[in-house]
Amino acid sequence: MAEIAVKEAYDVVVVGAGAAGGVIAERATRAGKRVLLLEAGPERQLGDLASSQIWARKLKWSGPTVEEEGNFKVGHVFNAGWGTGGSALHHYGVWPRLHEADFDVASRYKVGLDWPIGYDELRPYYDKVQAEVGLSGDAEGETWRPPGEPYPLPAVPVFAQGEVIRKGFEALGLRTSAIPLAINTREYKGRSGCLYDGWCDAGCPIGALANPLVTYLGWALKAGAEIRNGAQVTRVLHDDKGQRATGVEYVDAAGSTRQVMADTVVVAAFAVQSARLLLASVSDKHPEGLSNHNGVLGRYLMTHPAASVYGLFKEDTLPHLGPTAGQLMCQDNYDDKTAVPGAFGSYQWLIANAMKPNGLLGIATTRPDIVGDRLQPFMEAAASRIGNMVCVSEDIALADNRITLSSNKDANGVPLARTVHNVTAPSETLLSSAIEQGKNVFAAAGADDVWASSPFAMHIMGGTVMGNDPASSVTDSYGRCHELENLYVAGTSLFPSSGAVNPTFTLHALALRTAEKLFGKS
């Protein structure tokens, strides 16, 4: 065992300086607690960010390898983040709410898992977060939206691409509305308004997009919370009885092993890494990992099966303008999860995403079949006339989709995470049906050429699912581990079902609910 170089004590230690960890740290610091955030990745500050595809790629995962298996891999490198701010530093700011029926799919449909709470219990936290952070949108236009306060900011503008594609939805009798975005359409609480230049995934150096650096994490650091980067947490520590967490052990940037003792330990290292850490924290009292006597830890790994639809239009679409997330959305097919024969789940369309010529999500990569002399004419046409939208569909929580430990280890001797994720026929059928609808929309909008991407994984959820029954879940509804009374988990790993909306708003609401339980309302 490595010699412990330093032992320290804090009131709260948070593993992971992303969106969920930032909420916990901010409320704990505001309550007068001494808080330490441990972040495995490098330091990121707002002034470091640059609007380029090269920079956007730097923000994605470059930590220990995640081994992936299954017919629908979760895409950890694309979906996770690396450094201060975590994955929410490069997220697009799409913040819809889960719908009421997303919380009880097992009771309603005999599929997957139920949440231990319903929409009504989470609604006040959605409302509070959107007021604190600032959301733009059109609550009345979102006829599908569950009850809640109107957005504090007006909707983003609809540019040419959005106007062209909207005509296709209207022709098919489908409704669209502005996407609810955590992007300022005007100055809000000292943060500037958006420039609509389509570089959201590079981190938004002007702070118009609500990444953690300019919201809860930034507020926590200003209030006195401490952060250490390059801090690879290797295990969570507990007392002799195995009933209370006592702190964490980590390897610092210089390679020294340190221990931080704390009254409250919060694991907020994103879905895969949170489960990995708990699984790796074996002891004589917890031989299968922490809070895993029931064998549920790591199970019910989920993603959002997604696909993009593209088309070339006669009109100029100005595809470089607007948010990367898109300008409009459609959830007309969301609430009836059994509407498609042989399928299960909800889906939504995010419409008119800003695109660049090259890069990870650029115009060129949409058509890998076009090479040689055909590429330049295609790029010249698409640079001014392409349109696109993405379908986000629901995953089913399956126990065999899971995170386990690999026989391979990282540089600190911690087993790597191994993920297995497969989708079954109901999910495949749902996404295939949605893609066909998307192609029909583009045809109705007048596209000369229409094509779709291969399916891909968007977002990662599950692995430390919450529930009321300790026999079938890892934590309670506040993320408190059933087997250790002061060990909490925060983030998307808690989700018992995926719904079909981007998860960042919901993880904020859940984390705020937990923080108020721990530290009181403020």
Structure description:
This protein is an alpha/beta fold and 522 residues long. The protein is built from eleven helices and 17 strands. It has a single domain (4-519), classed as FAD/NAD(P)-binding domain, CATH 3.50.50. The strands form three sheets. Strands 1, 2, 5, 6, 7, 8 and 17 form a seven-stranded mixed β-sheet that branches. Strands 4, 9, 10, 11, 12, 15 and 16 form a seven-stranded antiparallel β-sheet that branches. Helix 1 (19-30) packs parallel to helix 7 and helix 6 (160-171) crosses helix 10. The relative contact order is 0.21.
Report the biggest beta sheet as strand number plus sense, adding barrel if it closes: 7 strands, mixed
Structural class: alpha/beta
Q: Please tally the helical runs, counting DSSP H or I stretches of 4 or more residues.
A: 11
Mean pLDDT: 97
Instruction: Output the CATH topology.
Output: FAD/NAD(P)-binding domain
Number of strands: 17
Ends apart, CA distance between termini? 43 Å
Pick out the low-confidence regions.
Answer: none
Series of H and E elements: EHEHEHHHHEHEEEEHEEEHEEEHEEEH
Range of strand content: 15-25%
What is the C-alpha radius of gyration, as a whole number of Å? 22 Å
Count of folded domains: 1
Q: What's the overall geometry?
A: globular
Helix content: 10-25%
CATH architect. name: 3-Layer(bba) Sandwich
